[in-house]
Design a protein that fits this description.
13 strands, two-stranded parallel ribbon, alpha/beta, 11 helices, Rossmann fold, 41% helix
């Protein structure tokens, strides 16, 4: 059985559907900090399968241990964690306590109960401000914000665990920028409160909830002055986790993969594509750059293709169309 932490979140819910449809048995948990139980019900509906689910917090090791006691866990796919760059700059201790201390609690339980397979939801932020693009897995590692630092520290902890125990196997999946939603429209990115990520803010602006989208900086050294990122459809990302699980079932040690499309799109590219494919207006206002952001980041995903047999299939128009389909009537 596979434990999916942060299962009701954006990426966790899509991956849970993919796992269940692939015939895997799962147990999920979440503390609902930035999600809701509606996603759990949607996962059951989309997969046609039920599964055990717990409301728990990584920082409460006793509540977490109940899951390990009640289920025979074979592997963990770890999504639970705070993920907003701007919020991490404002609340660094909150991020370090939740992301790092919570993950250490999870790893202690895995060690205690003999669970040796771990897929970690890492991030391209561990590359800091790269000197060139596209970025491959051998690039130097550094961070520009506390969120990225938590991911990098956890990667280090996992590498150390693999050195200490040769039976332990880890996949470090460095995501670029997930957007989009399931084709059913039942699950997608719908954060509680004011969203931090770009696509939910575009959607709220298109719906009229926000009067204008804030574009943080148009003076970067990029083709149109706005930040360039590698946007990947969340369903492609979910499939990458299944491929990674298959890999670590066969091979021990540390396995590191970029999950991205290998293409860079600017903030303006995303805004204009979203408006065009969905026939909506997305008014925006340009403001100064945001602390911790870097000008340009996109991946070289060739290692994942070569070793996992995985590559992204869906394009920017698919991402924009499915995002709006999910959120427009909510």
């Amino acid at each position: 059985m596979i434990l999916v932490t942060g299962m009701s979140g954006y990426i966790g819910s899509h991956t849970a559907v993919a796992l269940l449809k692939a015939g895997k048995d799962i147990v999920g948990f979440d503390n609902f900090y930035n999600s809701s139980f509606e996603a759990v019900k949607a996962v059951e509906s989309l997969s046609g399968r039920s599964f055990p689910f717990y409301e728990a917090d990584l920082r409460d090791i006793d509540s977490m241990e109940r899951i390990f006691k009640e289920h025979n866990i074979d592997a963990v796919v770890h999504f639970a964690g705070l993920k907003a760059v701007g919020e991490s700059v404002a609340k660094p201790l909150f991020y370090y306590e939740n992301n790092i201390c919570g993950t250490v609690n999870l790893l202690k339980l895995m060690e205690k109960y003999g669970v040796m397979r771990f897929v970690f939801s890492s991030s391209a932020t561990v590359y800091g401000e790269p000197k060139s693009v596209p970025i491959n897995e051998d690039f130097p590692l550094s961070t520009t914000n506390p969120y990225g630092s938590t991911k990098l520290y956890i990667e280090g902890i996992l590498k150390d665990m693999c050195k200490a125990n040769k039976e332990f196997s880890v996949a470090l999946l460095r995501y670029f920028n997930p957007i989009g939603a399931h084709e059913s429209g039942l699950i997608g990115e719908n954060p509680n409160g004011i969203p931090n990520n770009l696509m939910p803010r575009i959607c709220q602006t298109a719906k009229g909830i926000m009067k204008s989208l804030t574009v943080f900086g148009d003076d970067y050294p990029t083709p149109d002055g706005t930040g360039v990122r590698d946007y990947i459809h969340v369903c492609d990302l979910a499939d990458g986790h299944i491929a990674a699980l298959d890999k670590i079932e066969k091979d021990t040690g540390v396995h590191i993969y970029n999950l991205g499309t290998g293409k860079g799109y600017s903030v303006y590219d995303l805004i204009h594509t979203f408006a065009r494919v969905n026939g909506v207006e997305v008014p925006y206002t340009v403001c100064p750059r945001r602390p911790g952001d870097v000008p340009e980041m996109y991946s070289d995903p060739s290692k994942a293709k070569a070793e996992l047999g995985w590559e992204a299939r869906l394009g920017l128009e698919d991402m924009c169309r499915s995002s709006w389909s999910f959120i427009k009537d909510k």
